Amino acid sequence: MGALLEVNGVSKRFRGLVAVDNVSFAVPQGTIFAVIGPNGAGKTTMFNMIAGEFAPNGGTISFAGERIDGLASDAVCRRGVGRTFQIVKPFMGLTVEENVIVGALLHRRHVGTARTKAHDVLRRLDLYDKREQRASALTLPDRKRLEVARALATDPKLLLLDEVMAGLRPTETDRIVAILKELNGETGLTILLIEHVMRAVMALASRILVLHHGAAIAQGSPGEVVRDRAVIDSYLGAEAIA
Amino acid sequence: MSPIIARLTGGVPRRALILLGLFVLFMLIAPALVGDYLLTVLILVLYFAYIGQAWNIMMGFAGQLSLGHALYVGLGAYTAAALYVHFGIGPWLGLLVAVPVAVLAGAVIGFLAFRFRVAGVYFAILTIAVAEFARVGFDHLSWTSGSSGLFLPVAQYTHNDLWHLRGHPAMFYYVMLAATILVFIGSRLILKSRLGYYCLAIREDEQAARASGINTFRYKMYAVMISAGMTSFAGVFYAFYYNNLFPEQVFSIGRSIEIILAPLVGGVGTLIGPVFGAFVLQGLAEGLHALLDTFGVDIPGIKHVFFGVVLLVVVIALPEGIWPWIARRLGLAERN
Amino acid sequence: MPLDIYLNVAAGGILAGLVYGLMALGLSVIFGMVRVVNFAHGEMMAIAMYLALLAFGLFGVDPLLMIVPCAAVLFGFGYVLQGALINRFITRPEHSQFLLMVAIAIIITNIQLIAFGPDARSVQTPYAFDSYQLGRLIVDADKLYGAIAALIVAAALFAFFRFTRTGTAIRACADNYTGAQIVGLNVKRLYALTFGLGCACVGAAGAILMVSADVTPQFGPIATLQAFVIVIAGGLGSMVGALLGGVLIGLTAAMAGLLFTPSAKAMFVYGILVLVLLFLPQGIMGKKPS
């Protein structure tokens, strides 16, 4: 059985700068897969290519057996890939509830049923009580959860999370980690996340990919990756394995 | 019936509904209460409220600033008028042709703009250019008498002919009132539908909207086409109410700017905004005229300077419009 | 039609185009540096034209001599406008700023309507009917003088931006707002200065244009659109592009007027605008809009 997401030899150049260099990896269905690496390593660029923001210069991306590289972002979402943004982009002028309804409307024609689904998702993400508030009035951690909720409402098979823990306090981080574990455990949702917060990565991921200067320098289970010489030298530092 | 009522009124505070009801009631009996002159003013108010609402769908819902909406008014007006003058086809049948013409124009503009990523201010300029193109084009169109003007035959009305829209101003008043109420209800229904949610999402953040699976091109097109179609009715009305059409006037950029004043002043993106704005603007203008009259002063063109000043003040101090500000203070704020 | 007529019309178009190019140059400077879409641009030119008209009517001053006074008045107007009003809109969404200028345009146009009435007014200079013979070309004196004046003003502006400290500072601001602030440039003052300069261009262009054209209150909006066509076709933010665009539009409009009907000129120009907006939004010389 092929993996849910297969990235093969993908590269991306921006006017002479190589952002992603011949990267390949596979995300099996039902796993939580983390992509880590120093800033500028090409992680978000990789994400953006998977999500359809732009096409790779080389290589292929397949989702559920079908090529998705080069598809527009809305088409990719319709195929079952949900995503959050590194810099949160909720619909500021809309309420929390409305934000998630927008996501839920993807697979539901009727606003009523979309609202029901939205409420379910909001309850799971602990945002139900704030559903009537404007997104602009939310704190950053809440906005991040709102984005996750909105993406979840689109019934994705794969959820792309871009540094969703950034800027959160440890308690909030733990909260999201718990929610993600629950989602993955209960629904089998496959999650691909970019993260710097190693605590979250180690708690969640069953496989890790390490990028550095656009290239994959290590790939494997958390235990393997964290002890990899190259990874320690370039990113983690020796304390990480203490 | 009741799910539609629920959809219409859901989330609106009770006192707002009551106020709205009273207002509609007043508008229904107004012709019996006001004199002839005020009636024509009210017709103008409703006209601008209607068009403002139609324009609002493109701007307030989908975030596309159109400064060439006079194009759709003109297309509607000329289509219906020409059909009447040349073939004796009444306005309601003419509407069946006028609306598709306007919708097609909107579709072309939308397609070109969205396909070629013409957005924001550039989009506004594009709409201006197309309207101007039409203005000069119609000047040369002999089938509609070009720049010398297209005139509809006006007979003395002995009775109200609703089918041909000939008659007493009160008839026009009720037609416009009905249209404004319908467009208001229609906008509300759209807003609460999937189309409405998607348009709002696009307005807020197009990239995030796409990431949520929305085909932004398609929904922007819907907004533009619906707006264009709705506006063309106002054009048909205009033709049969004023009975003369000149390209210089009908398609002029001054008209396009007039169209956006009411929603901008009242509140873009809100439902009440355009209606409120229309009343405020015309009301204040009339007040200004009355004031000047008492001093025996008559300055033609002062009305437009006044509108410019009002717009200036609103843009600087109350960018979301006067209505949202008032609504919050009176506790009438509905969740938009 | 004999070649001579084509050449004469073309020459006339190019000369007129240079003056419109100067007007568009002002718009380009304003957009390129301050990122304001000045929808009241043509209306401001109309102000200058009316000023020149008044000066001629009251004191018999030739409009070409009003170039500096008009430029100065419009400079002051622009400087104050930017400083007092527009600067507040730097952080607002772009259509907010655009609408601000729309409001100002409405006010200007209608005040002109009230003050001067809707009829066309013009100035009759002593050389209004003179012409020069250059080989096979017959060139109108007023257009020729106007074009030369426009080139001189444009050259002065280029020199300012190239060679003076303030000019360089302005260009730095345009490139990098935050960077300029860090280096200690008073950005708001520079913005006001730039806007003022753009308006000064327009003032000069208006005075020049009064020599050969009529002015009506309706001229403002039309000139604004024309400026946008030129600037968008020539490249938003490119000074050379504005002048080139002006010449191009002047030339094509003149030829269109000759080959089709005179009023089709306008359609042609708007048609070009639509095409450029669709296919070449960065214009011939400009950078891609962000």
Question: What does this molecule look like?
Answer:
The complex is a heterotrimer of chains A (242), B (336) and C (290). With 242 residues, chain A is of the alpha/beta class. Helices cover 38% and strands 24% of the residues of chain A. Chain A folds into two domains: 5-80 and 156-241, 3-Layer(aba) Sandwich (Rossmann fold); 92-155, no CATH class. Chain A has helices spanning 43-51, 73-79, 96-104, 111-124, 140-152, 170-187, 198-204, 222-227, 229-236; strands spanning 5-14, 17-27, 32-36, 58-63, 66-67, 81-83, 158-162, 190-194, 207-212, 215-220. Chain A is globular and about 50 Å long. The mean pLDDT of chain A is 90. The model of chain B has no long low-confidence stretch (mean pLDDT 87). Chain B starts with a helix and ends in a 6-residue tail after the last helix. Chain B is mainly alpha-helical and 336 residues long. In chain B, strands 1-2 form a two-stranded antiparallel sheet. Chain B is globular. Chain C has helices at 3-34, 41-59, 67-84, 94-116, 141-163, 165-175, 177-182, 187-210, 219-234, 239-259, 264-279; strands at 131-134, 137-140. The radius of gyration of chain C is 19 Å and the shape is globular. At the B-C interface, helix 6, helix 12 and helix 14 of B face helix 4, helix 9 and helix 11 of C.
Can I get a quick summary?
With about 325 residues, chain B is an all-alpha fold. Chain B is built from 15 helices and 2 strands.
